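Quick note —
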Amino acid sequence: MRQLAIEFSKEDEAQVHYYEDRIKKMPVDVLKGHGVVEEADGVVKLTVDDLTFEEKANLRAMYKQKIGEFLASRGLSTWDYSLLSFDPVGESLRYEILTRDRICQLCGATKEQERLEVDHIVPRSKHGPNDPDNLQVLCAPCNRGKSNRDDTDFRS
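Predicted structure written out below.
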């Protein structure tokens, strides 16, 4: 199932563009700033020489420790809450809403320009239902900007 989802996402140019932009900003820029990677013609490579097995193991252990410390200080809310959806919008309903609205209801972006998402007008975190009257299409940037802070209905 996951492999199929990955293959389908490769065909979504807006999603590919979104992740290219995200990766350029973080972690590539940060790693370049620390001299860990170089970038040339869209290719990123490590600037370190070949590492031994022990060095790789030490790096992995340090990475896990740092992530653990970060999450302990910031809490689970550090992760995008959309990854923790306990009652997601079903695929049939998602299709219905995407077909109904077709474009981002806030900025007008199309699926060719940005990844389109189904947004809860009254957020799930505030007990908004998975009902068509509570759902609208927003592009990924608009949906992230709205977050769960308000219940604005952007539909006409």
